[in-house]
Amino acid sequence: ILLGCFSISPDSCTNTRIEDCFIVSGDDCVAVKSGWDEYGIAYGMPTKHLVIRRLTCISPFSATIALGSEMSGGIEDVRAEDITAINTESGVRIKTAVGRGGYVKDIYVRRFTMKTMKWAFWMTGNYGSHPDNNYDPNAIPVVENINYRDMVAENVSMAAKLEGIGGDPFTGICISNVTIGLAEKAKKLQWNCTDIAGVTSSVTPKACDLLPDQGEKQTSCNFPDDTLAIEEVEAHACSYSKRYL
């Protein structure tokens, strides 16, 4: 169990479990990474098989869970559940840009509670900073199979800001069973969507036209039924005492 003011940043990690954390941060509470631009592409080590659960986050200026922006080695199979965000800028944030390459795919989030947020969902393909000028302008990141389900929010300024990449949209976005309660001074436009594709089901307020409501055709978005190897690892408590001789 972790308690304190910090961020957790798994970078190029396989089989990682983050659980039972209370985090107060001025940055992303959990920032999932895998290298930056040509350096991440060359190293080629993705972050995958990541479990995040039973997390409480306070981050007024950033996200509860961020995927990227340093994601050039790839991010895949992230499973987050039973998350609470309070006074946090956004719930789940995906950040990438042309030149970063790599991918963010097979992301699964469920049972997420948000209280006092700027955005519930936020993703962008225009997070344009680079470490130097040696990046490949033809390195286009892939964002696909993003699943959010069983979520509730209150006092939210804007439901979603979803911005893919022109000519290479973010695809396979699924949002189901989500209720977003709006702030008193909420934005008039609740879903701002460009260059994305996907579906929704039982989402309030109604999503943008690029995420059409499937009604009874689809009841919930995917969340894997299998168990990852890291979930079978037993955590052991440790203690330390200092003796003076």
TrEMBL record:
Hydrolase listed as a keyword: yes
GO function terms (MF aspect): polygalacturonase activity
SUPFAM superfamilies, A to Z: Pectin lyase-like (SSF51126)
Coiled coil (UniProt feature): none
Listed InterPro entries: GH28_Enzymes (IPR051801), Glyco_hydro_28 (IPR000743), Pectin_lyas_fold (IPR012334), Pectin_lyase_fold/virulence (IPR011050)
Compartments where found: Secreted, Cell wall
The organism's place on the tree of life at top rank: Eukaryota
Gene3D superfamilies noted in UniProt: Single-stranded right-handed beta-helix, Pectin lyase-like (2.160.20.10)
UniProt main location, coarse: secreted
Biological process (GO), any one: carbohydrate metabolic process
Keywords: Cell wall, Glycosidase, Hydrolase, Secreted
PANTHER family: PECTIN LYASE-LIKE SUPERFAMILY PROTEIN (PTHR31339:SF71), PECTIN LYASE-RELATED (PTHR31339)
Family the UniProt entry places it in: Belongs to the glycosyl hydrolase 28 family.
Official protein name in the record: Polygalacturonase
Organism name: Linum tenue
